Amino acid sequence: MSTTLDVSVGGPIARTDWVTRYRRHVFWCDLLVICLAVVSGYFGRFGWQPPVIAGVPYAVVGAAFVVAWLFALQQMRCYDGKVLGHGTDEYRRVATGSLNVAAFVAIGCYVADLPLARGFVAITWPLGTVGMLAARLLARKFLHRRRREGAAWSHRVLLVGTEDHVLHLLGRLRREPYAGYDVVGACLPGVSPLPDISTLPDISALPGMSALPGIPVVGSTERILETASLVGADIVMVVSAAGISPDALRELGWELVGTGVDLVVAPSLTDVAGPRIHTRPVAGLPLLHVEEPELAGPRRGVKDLVERLLALAALIVLLPAFAVVACWIRLDSQGPAIFRQARVGRNGRIFTLYKFRSMVVNAERERPRLDGRNEKDSVLFKIRRDPRVTRAGRWLRRWSVDELPQLLNVVKGEMALVGPRPPLPSEVAQYPRHVARRLLVRPGLTGLWQVSGRAELSWEDSVRLDLYYVENWSMTGDLVILWKTVGAVLRGHGAY
């Protein structure tokens, strides 16, 4: 990918062309899906008959439906490069735009007294909406795969802030490469300004610049625009408490207007999801209001009821399969088919967790001699090829079948379908104070840890994901985790 840069102060900087290409691909995918939905609605409702409405052929009505749908998506800014490829806002906008066009058609037909066939709309609208969401999901997976392979499909980011804040933000951004933020350099306060930066041909000509661990220091906070131009950045990300005065930050925003470079301000607040954050302008200041995490209330009650009913239904359906698995375990090795273990639940209550036995009976007594082979830290104990795992156990763990008896824990109200990982009492005894917040909600049969690598996760990552879930729980998030759990189980990544 080639990018032409004008390094003169205030000159236009060409945005990386992957945004335009990806936006174009998404648009054509939406158009194809909508057209297929309209054709399906036409033939599904009328067959090969050429119907008309108010003297107008349905072919014209279908074409108008396509145009109106695309217009509604455009009005919802569904092709904004800031939402494409990451986060849930893209899907929300597509769903809202589709709902708007359906409401517009319904109101328009009512006001104009047009007898639009309800069967046509009933087929076309859900097919188009679900089809576009699925197409964008596939397009996003393609984009994420490209981003993991290299930085050509990512934003080029120039970080601005103090050393500690820059390194912290760098670690967060590189932890999730699929988000599409490729950090190309940093500007720190106190660094000597670069002389005549606009005359330097490329980054290699920067005289005597130092480097932080994993990131080059390419300039000072006094010449941010020039440095961004030189390194080809299309995003300047300023960390709060960056050593830049409010007036200087405001002037930087003015300078970036028309350059193709976006200004992003990263607050020091971390691991708080968007629904809990509300921006309220007061006296010219964009104040961030952070709501308390929802740890109780009616929606928690609904979650509890729905999960227990779903778990009960799953137990009834899977009961014959449970009997087959239990017989296999008993035939494969001596001992009971069900393994019971004390775990810590909500508010520190101890409960008995049920699993299909995947290890030999005396596994706990054999652990001390295996401590030296622990592949994790002092809190978690995991061995990739644990000799205590039985032949049947390897298969059970590979497909997470050993976890299914925990559905009984869900029915009893000791666990949830989705939640933090259920810890051992020995682990809880080593918790720092902040980690104990994991115990504010019921542990889950699955969770963010399950869909993010399972046994491959470090202790720190496991804690971070569990705390994020506790702080930002939502019904929609639970549905997403349940959906991703299916893929995680099928891939078997981190299951041992």
UniProtKB/TrEMBL annotation:
| Keyword annotations | Membrane, Transferase, Transmembrane, Transmembrane helix
Q: Which intervals hold domain Bacterial sugar transferase?
A: 303-490
Stated membrane topology is: Multi-pass membrane protein
- InterPro entries attached here? Bact_transf, EPS_sugar_tfrase
GO MF terms held by the record = transferase activity
Q: Name one Pfam family in it.
A: Bac_transf
Where found in the cell? Membrane
Q: What is its main location?
A: membrane
Q: Which residues cross the membrane?
A: 25-43, 55-73, 94-113, 119-139, 309-331
Q: Which NCBIfam families does the UniProt entry name for this protein?
A: EPS_sugtrans (TIGR03025)
Q: Per the similarity annotation, which family is this?
A: Belongs to the bacterial sugar transferase family.
Identification of the protein by name: Sugar transferase
Q: Which organism is it from?
A: Nonomuraea antimicrobica
